[in-house]
Structures are given as structure tokens and as C-alpha cells.
Amino acid sequence: MAAFKSLAMDTLTPSQRSERMSRVKGKGSAAERRVRSLVHRLGYRFRLHGAKLPGKPDLVFPSRRKVIFVHGCFWHRHPDPNCALARLPKSRQDFWVPKLEGNRVRDLRIEGELATLGWKSLAIWECQIRDTAFLENEIRTFLQP
């Protein structure tokens, strides 16, 4: 009965929901591509998706021992209360709240692991990408020696 109730709240059928969720990218999202482009235009060179580092950071700057994560506000629970992209779904909160909170906790754990290994990390949020001047300043400040 509980499964029927949660399905009734969703506007898509289970197969439609599955198909839509399968389109969510883990790598190479539009936000990530935009950050990569900006970092490259600023003259910095980087490696992608450092598989040997905790969390496989999106951009890795080995000589600087710094990494950048490009976080989706929804998936990584952007803590800014003014971020409209970080809202919780109205349906199936019993599923979404633990899942999204788990992502946030994992991000904090990974940041700590990187710090223990001597790496500095910067999280760029999806909603911050719209403000190019702000983003450029954040990246320059972070990547300076």
C-alpha cells in the first residue's frame, strides 16, 4: 500500500522516472564543462576526475595539490538557504531526505580525507556558475600559490 501511495504522488510512471533519472550525468555535466572552460581560459591546466584521489574530484591540479568539485545544488544539498536549486522533492521524502543527506555527509568525509592527504579542495555550486565574475575570482583566489 505504501508503494502505491508514493507512486500516486509522482507525475511520471516508474519507467518514465527511471528513464529520466538515467539521464542524470555523473561526469561532464553542463556545469562542469562551463567551469572547465573558464579554468582553461584563465590559463590553468588540470587533470579530469582524479581516480586515485578520494571522491574522484572533477578538476585536479597535481602540482598545486588542489582539487575542484562541481556540485549540483540538488544532489549535494547546497547549504545556502537562498538557493532555489537545493529544494527537496515534495514526494517520497522518506527516500530523498536520507539519500541526499548521505551525499552531503559523504562530501564532508571526502573533503576531510583530501585534507589529511595534504590536498586543498574547493566546491563550486551549480547556482554559482551563473555569475562569471564571482566564479573567476573564486577560482583565481583558490588556485594562487
Quickly count the helices.
Answer: 5
CATH superfamily placement: VSR Endonuclease
Q: What Rg do the Cα atoms give?
A: 17 Å
CATH architecture: 3-Layer(aba) Sandwich
| Percent in strands | 5-15%
Strand order, largest beta sheet: 1-2-3-4
How many individual β-strands? 4
How many angstroms separate the termini? 58 Å
> Could you name the CATH class?
Alpha Beta
Structural class: alpha+beta
- Report the sheet with the most strands, covering strand number, pairing sense and barrel closure: 4 strands, mixed
The SSE order reads HHHEEEHEH
Shape: globular
Q: In CATH terms, what is the fold-level topology?
A: Endonuclease, Chain A
Q: Which whole number gives the mean pLDDT?
A: 86
Instruction: Kindly give the count of domains.
Output: 1
Low confidence ranges = 1-8
Specify the helix fraction band: 40-55%
Summed up:
The protein is globular, with a radius of gyration of 17 Å. Strands 1-2-3-4 form a 4-stranded mixed beta sheet, sandwiched between helices. The chain has a single domain (27-143), classed as VSR Endonuclease (Endonuclease, Chain A).
